[in-house]
Request: fold
Amino acid sequence: MQTNAIVSFSSLAGMAVARAMTYRTIVRVGILAALLVMALIITTQATVLADKGASAKPKATATPSTTTAQAPTNSVDQGAGERAEPEHAPTRAEEEAFIKESQNPIGNVAILPFQNNWNYAAGPSKTTVWNMNIQPVVPFMLSPKANLIERVITPVVNLTPLLQSQDCFALGITVSSPPCGAELGIGNIQLQTFYAPKTNPNGFIWGVGPMFSFPTVSKHLGTQQFGGGIDAVGLVMPGHWVTGMLVTQRWYIAGPSSAAENTLNQLQAQPFINFNFGKGWALSEAPLITANWNEPGNQKWTVPIGLQVGNTNTWLKLPMAYQLAYYGNIVRPQFAPYGLIRFNWAILWPVKRGY
Reply:
């Protein structure tokens, strides 16, 4: 009897675990695992490149590279009786080239950014909604003539109550969830892929590929639909400038669709202009313009305008970038935020590319 009870308990526990592991949970776990793998790849590539760069130094004084900007590398352990060689300090030109390359969405720099956004005056109660986008970018060299760039965007959202308590009472809403309660969770995770052929760094640089969005959200933090589409980027980098545009279009593939939630059909266009003053400082404009094609005309577009200032320097032997920005929505749907304040912090690693 005791053995049967144990077996029955184990079976019930297994059924409970199986029910808990819903499709959405499996997708969340899988994508979070992919993020960890990408972080491991970034760290591994950075370590390998640093070791190669250090071991490739000649015994005489190293000559700075004129084609690829190099970040500072750690010293290599020397054998007994050998004298440690001084590290090659990057020149001002190399540092400025590396900073410009980090502003290229498909550049030869692996990036781990943490983008914090405070969206103010959202909803009928004009509340502030915070979200953080964790969006690692990793370039992989397919061949000497082409690269594959993977970008994963994971939004962490803290949705505060969008309605006042008296409004919720008047509407007969008693649940403590949005729009009358708070919720913290993960939004729709996106995977963006770019095929980037070898180009002249002083000419037109471009990349194109598929993108996907996953129903990794809780009930109120995004759409329950699985989407896919195309992304493309084009830019030029003359002198102190880095300017171009990143465009994505995604459509509905699978998932629930009803009158309350239209099928996914969304365009995002992000023109970007960076001017580098030197010594790591830059002034930028990179508004994220959105169009929900299924919405009526006056609810379709969100068009922000603003400005951001940034600095790139080295801390703990790692290049890091910081940005502070403000954007106001000059065109927006009803109840959309009036604008946002953004603070972005990113860790940078140089990665060898095909050009």
Remarks:
- The radius of gyration is 24 Å.
- The longest strand covers residues 301-315.
